[in-house]
Design a protein that fits this description.
three-stranded parallel sheet, alpha/beta, 15 helices, six-stranded parallel sheet, 9 strands, 403 residues
Length: 403
């Protein structure tokens, strides 16, 4: 089905409604629904915040918790160890090392506190067993390898503690490779020597390599060097919106040819062109100065913060990406890469979410839209988890063969 026709059918059939049809909901509930990029660990240190509570009232401050995972049929995914790229001197590397380990600990503490509802997954078989038991599948990933810069051998310790996916860079270049969005441009022309060694180490351990945020050159080199398929854990289509953070069709085809999977991002600024408003940015900066980082905002202060933020948003309204924009990217990527090489990684709690799909409770809408676009129940299952689990199995098979 042509992309334009599929989108028209989605809109005309009312798929934009908040609730999916009963049949789509059944298919969604029966599938194993996994998302490859859950930035929710950023909330784990917030005073008063618990994943067991429903935080719908917090809006985009919190998009994932157990009640909304259940409401949206989200069986789990990858909890992210995210580290902002800081200074690359010795002090900066130590700070990144400590931050990464602290976030890893916070994920394990969250899982321990909710052991009756969630369980750490180390393999694809684990994921199937955990989901069958009615628990939430909990893989662990790393976004930005900066915590390893002071000592790359730490990757072995991370693996022993559950790490099964690793993104090389974030929004700036680091010691391992070039970012797609560093204003300074490329530093290494792809991977650094340390980055190439990291690829070898990840293959040896069975850790899936993630090229999201990385430059095109890093993507190309990961694809060439890795003995296992790679993924893009949260990336959208350059053909739909030309942005350095997105991927072009030629590389989508190369990813598919090597058995990899792209998981489609719902970060609005990568879906459509959103022009920043300087006055709004200044007002938001002042608000952040007053309340501190959102990741440290106590739950008790959220209502006051949101009230002041809404005033700014109403005074300086900004364009928002919509659910139809998201589906435009997803359907295009499916057409180019093929149904065996696409998944979902919406960047929840990391800036993801669009008008009409504000948090994980709305995930059945994707299933509804895919069915309306002509994808079968079996294909929907591949998109939600089958393709991802295949890559995990292949990465671990490569590791086993190298031991």
């Amino acid at each position: 089905m042509a992309l334009a026709s599929a989108l028209a059918m989605i809109c005309s059939d009312g798929v934009a409604a908040k609730e999916a049809t009963a049949d789509a909901r059944r298919i969604h509930e029966e599938a194993m629904v996994l998302d490859t990029h859950l930035d929710t660990p950023a909330n784990f240190r917030r005073p008063g915040w618990s994943i067991a509570d429903n935080h719908e009232h917090e809006g985009d401050l919190s998009q994932v918790d157990l009640p909304r995972m259940k409401a949206g049929g989200l069986d789990g995914g990858f909890w992210v160890i995210y580290t902002a790229q800081g200074a690359r001197d010795d002090a900066g590397k130590r700070a990144a090392r400590d931050h990464g380990l602290d976030r890893l600990v916070s994920i394990h503490k969250m899982l321990a506190a909710n052991a009756d509802e969630m369980e750490l997954a180390l393999t694809a078989d684990d994921a199937e067993r955990i989901a069958s038991a009615g628990k939430r599948v909990s893989f662990i990933s790393m976004e930005n390898a900066a915590p390893l810069a002071s000592d790359p051998t730490l990757l072995t310790a991370y693996h022993r503690l559950g790490l099964r996916m690793m993104g090389v860079t974030h929004v700036r270049n680091n010691d391992f490779g070039d970012s797609s969005t560093d204003p300074a441009g490329p530093e290494w022309k792809g991977l650094s020597p340390a980055g190439r060694a990291l690829v070898e180490q990840a293959n040896r351990l069975g850790i899936v390599l993630d090229a999201s945020h990385a430059s095109d050159a890093v993507f190309d080199q990961l694809l060439a060097l890795s003995k296992a398929p790679i993924v893009l854990s949260h990336t959208s289509a350059d053909a739909i919106y030309d942005h350095p953070r997105n991927i072009d069709d030629a590389r989508l085809r190369q990813l598919a040819a090597k058995g990899g999977v792209i998981h489609v991002n719902a970060f609005g600024g990568y879906l459509v062109n959103i022009t920043k408003i300087p006055e709004r940015e200044a007002a938001m900066d002042a608000l952040a100065e007053k309340y501190g980082p959102e990741s440290q905002l106590p739950v008790a202060r959220v209502p006051a913060y949101l009230a002041e933020r809404r005033v700014i948003e109403e005074r300086f309204p900004m364009k928002r990406a919509t659910f139809d924009d998201y589906m435009r990217h997803l359907l295009h990527i499916l057409k180019v890469a093929g149904v065996d090489h696409v998944g979902i990684g919406a960047d929840w709690d990391g800036g993801g979410g669009v008008a009409g799909m504000e948090d994980v409770s709305a995930l059945p809408r994707i299933t509804e839209a895919l069915l309306t676009a002509g994808y079968t129940e079996q294909e929907v299952r591949k998109i939600w988890s089958g393709n991802l689990l295949r890559v995990i199995r292949e990465a671990q098979a490569v590791a086993s063969a190298r031991r």
